[in-house]
Write a structure and sequence with these properties.
This protein has helices at 18-26, 49-52, 124-127, 134-151, 158-164, 174-189, 191-194, 219-231, 273-277, 320-338, 374-387, 391-407, and strands spanning 10-14, 33-38, 42-44, 63-65, 73-84, 89-94, 100-104, 107-110, 115-116, 129-130, 166-170, 203-207, 234-237, 242-245, 249-252, 257-259, 262-265, 269-270, 288-290, 302-304, 309-311, 353-358, 361-365, 370-373. It folds into 2 domains: 10-114 and 271-338, FAD/NAD(P)-binding domain (3-Layer(bba) Sandwich); 124-269 and 352-407, FAD/NAD(P)-binding domain (3-Layer(bba) Sandwich), CATH 3.50.50.100. It is globular and about 70 Å long. The strands form 7 sheets. Strands 7-6-5-2-1-8-20 form a 7-stranded mixed beta sheet, with no helix packed on it. A 5-stranded parallel beta sheet has the order 10-17-11-12-13. The chain is built from 12 helices and 24 strands. The chain starts with 9 loop residues before the first strand and ends in a 7-residue tail after the last helix. By secondary structure, the protein is an alpha/beta fold.
Length: 414
């Protein structure tokens, strides 16, 4: 078993998402020996992930390596496979070679996020792509270009060509809407230049199980999005419940079939098998229950943050905004504990929601303003630019936007 040091308490953080990374950036490394355990060795700025699927932004522009993010921390690229809270020991497994090891902790932070939720629908894992990690975005980008190249093959049948160029997104939340919007921009601006013979065959369909898109947004903004998508020739099918996914078709509950060349599944998140296995109190949907100080119920030295946890008295949404605030709060709380000071409870502040809807237009659902259109798009871009974690990322994203504006999106397949 490994203890980092006997001089300072060992603070072990599981995860490298918004909550964990916000904690890492703010924690006082003079007061704690900080060790991070995660199979992903970088932080990913997920709000801009849809932009990478078509090359509006390049992949490495929205990631920050954990090792270079903060001097004075240690990092292990590994999975935590089990927690023994009585002995304060973690069982871990290296993500690259499955070598097993154990770690001791004085304070533990569980910030392992969530996984894609497929609701038990057959065929989703086998045939659909997801959009949660950078590897997912790269797979989508590769498939898009591959489908255009395959559709360009001489003598291909009209039926196969139209199927290959039918891009289906399941899920009408912010991620699904933004992905459809980014694909529309690519298909509308770049495809006509490089694949002019295919431009008329391209189709985007968005399938949503409920009666409306962006259900958490203001009703007027929902209506604006639906109207804009119709104008952009993005087909929106609400109350379209998926029953099964086949290799080339989505079968809906009403019996209708939707053929596709690319299917992206974006219907929300659920608990990971690791979180489900933990011996802690949980909600009905397997999120870890925490108190007002974000401590796991029944423990004073184990905390849980982000998508994998929620408070007893209020169901916190599984969003990056919540996770970021929780990570920053806990870092400052632990800093105060190290100084012997009192800690105040965590209170979430909702600052509103943003979403890109294509054609240089966005939505801004704020407490005081319900903005839409071009001005909201400028606000959307400036807000996310300021929230990127490093100057390197900010500069790279600005250059990516400028490069896309001047030269278009790259269509290389490699």
């Amino acid at each position: 078993m490994t203890h980092v040091s006997d001089a300072k308490p060992d603070l072990v953080i599981l995860g490298t998402g918004f909550s964990a990374f916000s904690l890492i950036k703010e924690i006082h490394v003079d007061d704690y020996d900080v060790i991070v355990v995660s199979p992903r060795n970088h932080f990913l700025f997920t709000p801009l992930l849809p932009s990478t699927t078509v090359g509006t932004i390049e992949f490495r522009s929205i990631i920050e390596p954990v090792r270079t993010s903060r001097p004075g921390i240690r990092y292990y690229q590994a999975f935590c496979t089990g927690i023994d809270p009585d002995r304060q020991i973690l069982a871990c497994e290296n993500a690259l070679d499955t070598q097993k090891f154990t770690l001791g902790y004085d304070t533990l932070v569980i910030a392992v996020g969530s996984v894609n939720n497929i609701y038990g629908i057959p065929g989703v894992f086998e045939h659909a792509l997801f959009l949660k990690e950078l590897a997912d975005a790269r797979a989508i980008r590769q498939r898009i270009i591959e489908n255009f190249e395959r559709a360009s093959t001489p003598n291909i049948s009209t039926e196969d060509r139209k199927r290959l160029l039918h891009f289906v997104v399941v899920g009408g939340g912010p991620t699904g809407v933004e992905l459809a919007a980014e694909m529309h921009d690519f298909f509308g601006k770049d495809v006509p230049k490089w694949f002019p013979h295919l431009a008329d065959d391209v189709q985007i369909t968005l399938l949503e199980a409920s009666s409306r898109l962006l259900s958490t947004f203001d009703a007027a903004l929902q209506a604006y999005t639906a109207k804009l998508f119709r104008r952009q020739r993005i087909e929106v099918r609400t109350e379209a419940v998926v029953k099964r996914v086949d290799p080339t078709e989505v079968i809906l509950e009403d019996g209708s079939r939707v053929s596709y060349g690319l299917l992206v599944w974006s219907t929300g998140v659920g608990p990971s098998p690791f979180v489900q296995s933990l011996p802690f109190p949980k909600t009905q949907n397997s999120r870890i229950l925490v108190d007002a100080l974000l401590r796991v119920k029944g423990f004073t030295n184990i905390y849980a943050l982000g998508d994998c946890a929620t408070k007893e008295d209020i169901n916190l949404p599984a969003t990056s905004q919540v996770a970021q605030q929780e990570g920053t709060y806990l870092a400052r709380a632990l800093n105060r504990i190290a100084e012997g000071k009192r800690v105040r409870p965590f209170h979430y502040r909702h600052f509103g929601m943003l979403a890109y809807v294509g054609s240089n237009r966005a939505l801004a659902d704020l407490a005081a303003v319900k903005g839409r259109g071009f001005s909201a798009w400028l606000f959307w871009r400036s807000t996310y630019l300021t929230k990127l974690v490093s100057w390197k990322n900010k500069i790279l994203v600005v250059f990516d936007w400028l490069k896309t504006l001047l030269f278009g999106r790259d269509i290389s397949r490699f």
